[in-house]
Amino acid sequence: MSKLYLVPTPIGNLKDMTLRAVEVLKTVDLILAEDTRTSGKLLKHFEVSTPMQSHHMHNEHKSIDGILQKLKSGLVLALISDAGTPAISDPGFLLTRACIENEIEVECLPGPTAFVPALVNSGLPNDKFVFEGFLPVKKGRQTRLMLLAEETRTMIFYESPHKLLKTLRQFCEYFGEERPLSVSRELTKLYEETIRGTAKEVLNHYENSPPKGEIVICVGGKS
User: Fold this and answer.
1) pLDDT digits (tens, 9 = 90+) for 148-184
2) pTM, rounded to two decimals
3) Which of 26, 35, 96, 183 measures 20 to 30 Å from 81, CA to CA?
């Protein structure tokens, strides 16, 4: 019976891979991978020999029809991203929606995703929050920041190291220098760290200590 599994993979520490995730990847007919080279190392580590097919943001619109045909023929597939849970700032939404529209069963396994530990570890209110992912690079960025300046819930952003200082400076400008926030980077990895403080304090820190690695920013809402 056809089915699509969405399988989270570790964001750094391989020990975060669940037993169930390994079992599913070993038993499906095909694994859809964001980067087959990156995923190949993961699958080799867990002795998974299931064949892979590339499915990433640059080809997902074109590849969905072919994937649906495989599912309709009765195959069971798994979708993985390079790290974390598929469809969270990674490919997955379009394929999931297409499966639902075609009455193909979809199941998402629980597992690693970067923003949850960053939020819980931030010390900011987490009873209500909004996940923003990556801010627009150019078009619409200022408009988005102006709207978010009025947001009262804790906000979560993903950011790359080379854009962190620009983003923190804009947070100071649009949210105010005293707005509390935290920056978590390299989560689950050897050099994991979380820097907490006001927007200005955290900006000062990273102006003196250039950041490396994957970054999650949690920003307190307007009080």
Assistant:
1) 999 999 999 999 999 999 999 999 999 999 999 999 9
2) 0.93
3) 183
